[in-house]
Amino acid sequence: VKTITDWIQGIDFRKNRPVLSPDGALIIIHSDQAGGHGQLDLYVCKRDETGKWSELKNLGKLVNTASIEFNPRFSRDGQTIYFSRRADKITDQPSRIHSISRRLVDNLNI
User: Fold this and answer.
1) Cα 71 to chain center, whole Å?
2) Which helix (H) or strand (E) holds 7?
3) Model confidence pLDDT, tens digit, residues 86-103
């Protein structure tokens, strides 16, 4: 398992825009790395009880589609994750805002 330092060194903060949950236990990014479901997908990294961070994991079809999922944000209480979805990078269509419960992410086997 990578340490947070190892994990952060591989992140392009301008491109991936990581967000930390209010309790400091999750980091969510958007990325176009290989193996995704669409043009940009959301990925999560979890911190365990010992403070070690998991590998980055795609949130899967729970969130990601063939479209672009980007700009994740947590609600103030950390129980809701908001994100934007758009059909493609070059479009006149506005982005739509979606949300999922933090419990769904917590229950992923990461």
Assistant:
1) 8
2) helix 4-9
3) 876 666 677 889 999 999
